[in-house]
Amino acid sequence: MTLSDLEKKRYLRQFTVRGWDQEKLKSAKVLIMGLGGLGSASAFYLTAAGVGKLRLCDGDRVERSDLNRQILYFEESVGKFKVEEAKKRLTSLNPHVEIETVKEFIDSQNADELTGGCDLIVDGLDNIESRFMLNKQSVKMQIPYVYGAVQGWEGIVGLFHPPRTACLACILRQDVQGADIISIPGVLPGTIGILQATEVIKFIMGVEQNLVNRLLIYDSRNLTFDIVETEKNPNCPYCGV
Amino acid sequence: MVIYLKAGSELRHRLKPDIDYYTRRIKTDAGKTIKEVLIDLGINPALVAFVYTEGKVKSLDFIPSSGQSITLQPPVSGG
To answer: For A150, which of B10, B21, B78 is closest by C-beta distance?
Structure first.
Protein backbone atom coordinates (compact mmCIF):
# COMPACT_ATOMS: atom_id res chain seq x y z
CA MET A 1 0.00 0.00 0.00
CA THR A 2 1.61 3.23 -1.13
CA LEU A 3 1.52 6.61 0.56
CA SER A 4 0.64 9.87 -1.17
CA ASP A 5 2.99 12.86 -1.01
CA LEU A 6 0.63 14.51 1.47
CA GLU A 7 0.76 11.46 3.73
CA LYS A 8 4.54 11.33 3.49
CA LYS A 9 4.68 14.93 4.69
CA ARG A 10 2.17 14.31 7.46
CA TYR A 11 4.02 11.32 8.89
CA LEU A 12 7.53 12.70 8.36
CA ARG A 13 8.43 12.71 12.07
CA GLN A 14 7.46 9.04 12.42
CA PHE A 15 9.43 7.74 9.43
CA THR A 16 12.70 8.32 11.20
CA VAL A 17 11.74 6.10 14.15
CA ARG A 18 13.73 2.87 13.90
CA GLY A 19 11.56 0.01 12.64
CA TRP A 20 8.65 2.26 11.73
CA ASP A 21 6.47 0.95 8.88
CA GLN A 22 3.86 3.49 7.84
CA GLU A 23 2.58 1.29 5.02
CA LYS A 24 1.79 -1.50 7.45
CA LEU A 25 -0.14 0.97 9.57
CA LYS A 26 -2.04 2.17 6.54
CA SER A 27 -3.03 -1.36 5.56
CA ALA A 28 -4.39 -2.22 9.03
CA LYS A 29 -8.02 -2.21 10.14
CA VAL A 30 -8.64 -1.69 13.85
CA LEU A 31 -11.90 -2.05 15.75
CA ILE A 32 -12.40 0.30 18.68
CA MET A 33 -15.19 -1.09 20.81
CA GLY A 34 -16.52 1.69 23.01
CA LEU A 35 -15.80 5.40 22.58
CA GLY A 36 -15.60 6.61 26.15
CA GLY A 37 -12.46 7.82 27.88
CA LEU A 38 -10.26 4.95 26.69
CA GLY A 39 -11.69 4.76 23.18
CA SER A 40 -11.50 8.54 22.68
CA ALA A 41 -7.80 8.63 23.50
CA SER A 42 -6.84 5.54 21.52
CA ALA A 43 -8.93 6.58 18.50
CA PHE A 44 -7.35 10.03 18.51
CA TYR A 45 -3.78 8.73 18.47
CA LEU A 46 -4.43 5.86 16.06
CA THR A 47 -5.98 8.35 13.66
CA ALA A 48 -3.09 10.76 14.06
CA ALA A 49 -0.62 7.91 13.53
CA GLY A 50 -2.28 6.94 10.24
CA VAL A 51 -3.88 3.55 10.85
CA GLY A 52 -5.66 2.92 7.54
CA LYS A 53 -9.12 1.95 8.70
CA LEU A 54 -10.92 2.35 12.01
CA ARG A 55 -14.27 0.81 12.88
CA LEU A 56 -15.82 2.72 15.79
CA CYS A 57 -18.60 1.00 17.73
CA ASP A 58 -20.71 2.60 20.45
CA GLY A 59 -24.47 2.95 20.84
CA ASP A 60 -24.28 5.78 23.37
CA ARG A 61 -24.92 9.47 23.11
CA VAL A 62 -22.60 12.02 24.73
CA GLU A 63 -23.53 13.08 28.26
CA ARG A 64 -22.23 16.17 30.02
CA SER A 65 -20.55 13.98 32.65
CA ASP A 66 -18.45 12.40 29.86
CA LEU A 67 -16.64 15.63 29.12
CA ASN A 68 -14.04 15.35 31.91
CA ARG A 69 -12.32 12.49 30.08
CA GLN A 70 -13.79 11.76 26.66
CA ILE A 71 -11.61 14.07 24.61
CA LEU A 72 -13.37 13.66 21.27
CA TYR A 73 -16.44 15.50 22.53
CA PHE A 74 -17.18 19.12 23.33
CA GLU A 75 -20.02 21.04 24.92
CA GLU A 76 -21.95 21.05 21.65
CA SER A 77 -21.63 17.24 21.41
CA VAL A 78 -23.93 16.62 24.38
CA GLY A 79 -26.95 14.57 23.30
CA LYS A 80 -25.40 13.48 20.00
CA PHE A 81 -24.23 9.98 19.08
CA LYS A 82 -20.64 9.40 20.12
CA VAL A 83 -19.65 7.63 16.92
CA GLU A 84 -20.89 10.52 14.78
CA GLU A 85 -19.14 13.15 16.86
CA ALA A 86 -15.98 11.03 16.95
CA LYS A 87 -15.96 10.55 13.20
CA LYS A 88 -16.34 14.31 12.70
CA ARG A 89 -13.34 15.12 14.92
CA LEU A 90 -11.15 12.29 13.67
CA THR A 91 -11.79 13.03 10.00
CA SER A 92 -10.87 16.62 10.67
CA LEU A 93 -7.67 15.43 12.36
CA ASN A 94 -6.65 13.07 9.56
CA PRO A 95 -8.75 12.74 6.38
CA HIS A 96 -6.48 9.91 5.14
CA VAL A 97 -7.98 7.50 7.67
CA GLU A 98 -11.11 5.64 6.60
CA ILE A 99 -13.60 5.66 9.47
CA GLU A 100 -16.58 3.34 9.71
CA THR A 101 -19.15 3.90 12.46
CA VAL A 102 -21.57 1.48 14.09
CA LYS A 103 -24.19 2.76 16.56
CA GLU A 104 -24.40 -0.51 18.46
CA PHE A 105 -23.18 -2.19 21.61
CA ILE A 106 -21.64 -5.64 21.32
CA ASP A 107 -23.94 -8.58 22.00
CA SER A 108 -24.11 -12.23 21.03
CA GLN A 109 -26.13 -11.37 17.92
CA ASN A 110 -23.84 -8.77 16.35
CA ALA A 111 -20.41 -9.83 17.68
CA ASP A 112 -19.30 -11.67 14.52
CA GLU A 113 -20.32 -8.78 12.29
CA LEU A 114 -18.66 -6.13 14.47
CA THR A 115 -15.34 -7.91 14.76
CA GLY A 116 -15.21 -9.47 11.29
CA GLY A 117 -12.45 -8.24 8.98
CA CYS A 118 -10.53 -6.43 11.73
CA ASP A 119 -6.85 -7.04 12.43
CA LEU A 120 -6.99 -5.90 16.04
CA ILE A 121 -9.56 -5.09 18.71
CA VAL A 122 -9.15 -2.16 21.09
CA ASP A 123 -11.12 -2.34 24.32
CA GLY A 124 -12.81 0.98 25.11
CA LEU A 125 -15.60 -0.60 27.14
CA ASP A 126 -16.85 0.36 30.58
CA ASN A 127 -18.02 -2.90 32.13
CA ILE A 128 -16.72 -6.41 32.78
CA GLU A 129 -19.58 -8.28 31.09
CA SER A 130 -19.00 -6.65 27.68
CA ARG A 131 -15.27 -7.24 28.04
CA PHE A 132 -15.84 -10.96 28.46
CA MET A 133 -17.99 -10.90 25.33
CA LEU A 134 -15.25 -9.09 23.43
CA ASN A 135 -12.72 -11.57 24.78
CA LYS A 136 -14.90 -14.43 23.57
CA GLN A 137 -14.84 -12.92 20.08
CA SER A 138 -11.09 -12.48 20.25
CA VAL A 139 -10.72 -16.17 21.10
CA LYS A 140 -13.24 -17.29 18.49
CA MET A 141 -11.86 -15.15 15.63
CA GLN A 142 -8.22 -15.30 16.86
CA ILE A 143 -7.99 -11.50 16.67
CA PRO A 144 -5.48 -9.81 18.99
CA TYR A 145 -7.25 -7.93 21.77
CA VAL A 146 -5.74 -4.86 23.40
CA TYR A 147 -7.34 -4.76 26.82
CA GLY A 148 -7.60 -1.58 28.85
CA ALA A 149 -9.54 -0.62 31.96
CA VAL A 150 -9.53 2.16 34.55
CA GLN A 151 -10.95 2.72 37.99
CA GLY A 152 -10.05 5.11 40.77
CA TRP A 153 -6.36 5.98 40.35
CA GLU A 154 -5.53 2.67 38.65
CA GLY A 155 -5.41 1.47 35.09
CA ILE A 156 -4.49 -1.82 33.39
CA VAL A 157 -3.33 -2.58 29.86
CA GLY A 158 -2.77 -5.99 28.30
CA LEU A 159 -2.46 -7.65 24.92
CA PHE A 160 -4.12 -11.01 24.39
CA HIS A 161 -3.66 -13.08 21.27
CA PRO A 162 -5.32 -16.41 21.92
CA PRO A 163 -4.75 -19.28 21.32
CA ARG A 164 -1.05 -18.33 21.33
CA THR A 165 -1.35 -16.44 24.64
CA ALA A 166 -3.60 -16.22 27.65
CA CYS A 167 -6.97 -14.59 27.12
CA LEU A 168 -8.69 -12.15 29.48
CA ALA A 169 -10.68 -14.94 31.12
CA CYS A 170 -7.46 -16.82 31.98
CA ILE A 171 -6.70 -13.99 34.39
CA LEU A 172 -9.92 -12.28 35.45
CA ARG A 173 -12.53 -14.27 37.30
CA GLN A 174 -16.01 -13.87 35.88
CA ASP A 175 -17.69 -13.75 39.28
CA VAL A 176 -15.89 -10.63 40.49
CA GLN A 177 -18.00 -7.84 41.90
CA GLY A 178 -17.35 -4.50 40.23
CA ALA A 179 -18.32 -1.15 41.72
CA ASP A 180 -21.79 0.21 41.00
CA ILE A 181 -20.47 3.69 40.29
CA ILE A 182 -16.98 3.91 38.84
CA SER A 183 -14.95 6.94 39.86
CA ILE A 184 -12.34 8.01 37.32
CA PRO A 185 -10.03 11.04 37.33
CA GLY A 186 -10.32 12.47 33.80
CA VAL A 187 -6.63 12.09 32.92
CA LEU A 188 -6.38 8.37 33.70
CA PRO A 189 -8.25 6.92 30.68
CA GLY A 190 -6.13 9.25 28.55
CA THR A 191 -2.96 7.61 29.83
CA ILE A 192 -4.31 4.09 29.46
CA GLY A 193 -5.94 4.76 26.07
CA ILE A 194 -2.66 6.09 24.71
CA LEU A 195 -0.81 3.04 26.04
CA GLN A 196 -3.37 0.87 24.25
CA ALA A 197 -2.80 2.83 21.02
CA THR A 198 0.94 2.37 21.46
CA GLU A 199 0.50 -1.38 21.78
CA VAL A 200 -1.68 -1.44 18.66
CA ILE A 201 0.91 0.41 16.62
CA LYS A 202 3.74 -1.79 17.88
CA PHE A 203 1.80 -4.97 17.21
CA ILE A 204 0.91 -3.92 13.65
CA MET A 205 4.54 -3.08 12.93
CA GLY A 206 5.82 -6.29 14.47
CA VAL A 207 7.64 -4.82 17.46
CA GLU A 208 8.40 -7.81 19.67
CA GLN A 209 8.70 -5.95 22.97
CA ASN A 210 5.00 -5.72 23.67
CA LEU A 211 2.46 -6.67 26.33
CA VAL A 212 1.77 -10.17 25.04
CA ASN A 213 1.59 -12.45 28.09
CA ARG A 214 2.00 -9.46 30.38
CA LEU A 215 -0.19 -6.89 32.08
CA LEU A 216 0.85 -3.34 32.81
CA ILE A 217 -0.72 -2.03 36.01
CA TYR A 218 -0.50 1.72 36.48
CA ASP A 219 -1.10 3.35 39.84
CA SER A 220 -1.29 7.06 39.10
CA ARG A 221 -1.59 7.98 42.77
CA ASN A 222 1.62 6.23 43.72
CA LEU A 223 3.28 6.81 40.31
CA THR A 224 4.13 3.15 39.74
CA PHE A 225 4.02 0.98 36.64
CA ASP A 226 4.08 -2.74 37.47
CA ILE A 227 4.47 -5.31 34.72
CA VAL A 228 3.29 -8.76 35.66
CA GLU A 229 3.51 -11.97 33.65
CA THR A 230 0.37 -13.87 32.73
CA GLU A 231 -0.05 -17.52 31.80
CA LYS A 232 -2.64 -19.47 29.87
CA ASN A 233 -5.08 -21.21 32.16
CA PRO A 234 -5.62 -24.76 30.83
CA ASN A 235 -9.04 -24.75 32.52
CA CYS A 236 -10.09 -21.40 31.04
CA PRO A 237 -13.75 -21.59 29.97
CA TYR A 238 -12.94 -19.50 26.87
CA CYS A 239 -9.59 -20.65 25.50
CA GLY A 240 -8.68 -23.72 27.59
CA VAL A 241 -8.30 -27.10 25.93
CA MET B 1 3.82 -17.46 59.42
CA VAL B 2 3.70 -13.85 58.26
CA ILE B 3 2.79 -12.62 54.79
CA TYR B 4 2.31 -9.10 53.46
CA LEU B 5 -0.82 -8.16 51.55
CA LYS B 6 -1.00 -5.01 49.45
CA ALA B 7 -4.03 -3.38 47.92
CA GLY B 8 -4.91 -0.15 46.23
CA SER B 9 -8.13 1.44 45.08
CA GLU B 10 -11.36 0.24 46.75
CA LEU B 11 -9.71 -2.78 48.33
CA ARG B 12 -7.28 -0.72 50.38
CA HIS B 13 -10.02 0.39 52.74
CA ARG B 14 -11.09 -3.20 53.32
CA LEU B 15 -7.54 -4.44 53.83
CA LYS B 16 -6.79 -1.76 56.43
CA PRO B 17 -3.04 -1.36 55.76
CA ASP B 18 -0.82 -1.02 58.85
CA ILE B 19 2.73 -0.88 57.47
CA ASP B 20 2.42 1.76 54.78
CA TYR B 21 -0.34 3.22 52.65
CA TYR B 22 -0.90 -0.09 50.82
CA THR B 23 0.50 -2.90 52.96
CA ARG B 24 -0.77 -4.98 55.86
CA ARG B 25 1.21 -7.57 57.79
CA ILE B 26 -0.84 -10.74 58.20
CA LYS B 27 -0.26 -13.68 60.52
CA THR B 28 -1.69 -16.82 58.97
CA ASP B 29 -1.30 -20.58 58.89
CA ALA B 30 1.07 -22.15 56.38
CA GLY B 31 -0.76 -23.98 53.58
CA LYS B 32 -3.73 -21.63 53.41
CA THR B 33 -4.71 -20.25 50.00
CA ILE B 34 -5.04 -16.51 49.44
CA LYS B 35 -8.79 -17.04 49.18
CA GLU B 36 -8.83 -18.60 52.66
CA VAL B 37 -6.67 -15.79 54.03
CA LEU B 38 -9.10 -13.24 52.62
CA ILE B 39 -12.07 -15.01 54.18
CA ASP B 40 -10.26 -15.04 57.54
CA LEU B 41 -9.79 -11.28 57.19
CA GLY B 42 -13.46 -10.74 56.42
CA ILE B 43 -12.74 -9.67 52.83
CA ASN B 44 -15.09 -11.09 50.22
CA PRO B 45 -12.89 -12.90 47.62
CA ALA B 46 -15.33 -11.79 44.91
CA LEU B 47 -13.89 -8.29 45.35
CA VAL B 48 -10.48 -9.50 44.15
CA ALA B 49 -10.00 -9.99 40.40
CA PHE B 50 -6.58 -11.64 40.72
CA VAL B 51 -3.43 -11.41 42.79
CA TYR B 52 0.20 -11.03 41.79
CA THR B 53 3.47 -11.70 43.45
CA GLU B 54 7.08 -11.54 42.30
CA GLY B 55 5.98 -10.26 38.90
CA LYS B 56 3.50 -13.03 38.15
CA VAL B 57 -0.29 -13.19 38.14
CA LYS B 58 -1.71 -15.89 40.39
CA SER B 59 -5.20 -17.22 41.08
CA LEU B 60 -6.85 -17.00 44.47
CA ASP B 61 -5.94 -20.65 45.01
CA PHE B 62 -2.31 -19.61 45.26
CA ILE B 63 -0.63 -20.69 48.52
CA PRO B 64 1.78 -18.04 49.77
CA SER B 65 5.00 -18.81 51.57
CA SER B 66 6.33 -17.12 54.69
CA GLY B 67 7.44 -13.52 54.18
CA GLN B 68 5.93 -13.28 50.72
CA SER B 69 4.36 -10.05 49.54
CA ILE B 70 1.15 -10.42 47.52
CA THR B 71 -0.79 -7.65 45.81
CA LEU B 72 -4.58 -7.91 45.63
CA GLN B 73 -5.94 -6.53 42.38
CA PRO B 74 -9.53 -5.30 42.54
CA PRO B 75 -11.75 -5.42 39.47
CA VAL B 76 -10.94 -2.45 37.24
CA SER B 77 -13.83 -2.07 34.90
CA GLY B 78 -14.29 1.55 33.86
CA GLY B 79 -13.50 3.11 30.54
So the answer is: B78
Topology of the domain comprising B2-73: Ubiquitin-like (UB roll) (3.10.20)
Q: Characterize B31-62 residue by residue with b for buried, 16 or more Cβ atoms within 10 angstroms of its Cβ, and e for exposed.
A: ebbbbbbbeeeebebebbbbbbbeeebbebeb
- Chain A positions touching B60 (Cβ under 8 A) are 173
Contact A153 B9 (CB under 8 A): yes
Domain ranges in chain B are: 2-73
Record the pTM.
0.95
A148, A38 contact by CB (below 8 A):
yes
Examine the pLDDT at A84 and tell me if it is beyond 80.
Answer: yes
Residues of chain B with pLDDT under 50: none
Q: Are B34 and B70 in contact (CB under 8 A)?
A: yes
Q: Do residues A228 and B52 lie in contact, with contact meaning Cβ atoms separated by under 8 Å?
A: yes
Contact present, A212 and A231 (Cβ < 8 Å): no
